[in-house]
Amino acid sequence: MRNTHCNSNPAGNKTLKNKEALSFQSLKRNRKMIRIVLADDHHQVREIWRRVLSANDNFEVVSICRNGQEAIDAAASETPDVVLMDINMHPVNGIEATIAISNTHPHVKVIGMSIHTDELYVKGMLQAGAHGYITKNTDYEEMFECIIQVNAGKYYVCNEVRKKIPGLLAIS
Asked: What is the CATH number of domain 35-171?
């Protein structure tokens, strides 16, 4: 590898480093954060997910919802990129909310999140229009990967479910 750095600056490379830092700062500012709505009927779950997601520079939590109806409303008012949607909520459950969001805001990607690994729940969310599915046992790194992949237009199902239901994405 050839060294192509030429230092014609009498002050050394301090100016170059400042320009690089400014360039990096502007890239960081111009990077589009993934806007996320969280929907879960358990306060502790919402709070933990909010803290975990807010600690990641790639994500911005724009709304926290207690049920599917609040998630539908947030999809309309907050223009999120992704909705993390629990399934078992009342009065509107996650499957019903996913159908509504997918029909009225097709640019919003829904990720089902539940404790359930049963094929009925997973396929129900995917058939309702979800682009991903994670369990509440999913580690943070895999959750982050799921959000990034789904936001990019891909489908993602967590490892725990893929092991239990091989070929799921091919049959959903």
From this structure: 3.40.50.2300
Identify residue 139 by its one-letter amino acid code.
Answer: D
| Distance from C-alpha of 70 to C-alpha of 13, rounded to nearest angstrom | 54
Strand partners, 84: 38, 111
- Sequence ranges of the domains in the chain: 35-171
Q: How far is CA 148 from the centre of its chain?
A: 6
Main-chain dihedrals φ then ψ at residue 38, nearest 5 degrees: -105, 130
Q: pLDDT by residue (tens digit) across 14-27?
A: 444 444 444 434 44
Q: Are 39 and 68 in contact (CB under 8 A)?
A: yes
Helices (H), the chain: 14-30, 43-54, 68-77, 94-104, 119-128, 140-151, 159-164, 168-171
pLDDT tens for 106-148 read 999 999 999 999 999 999 999 999 999 999 999 999 999 999 9
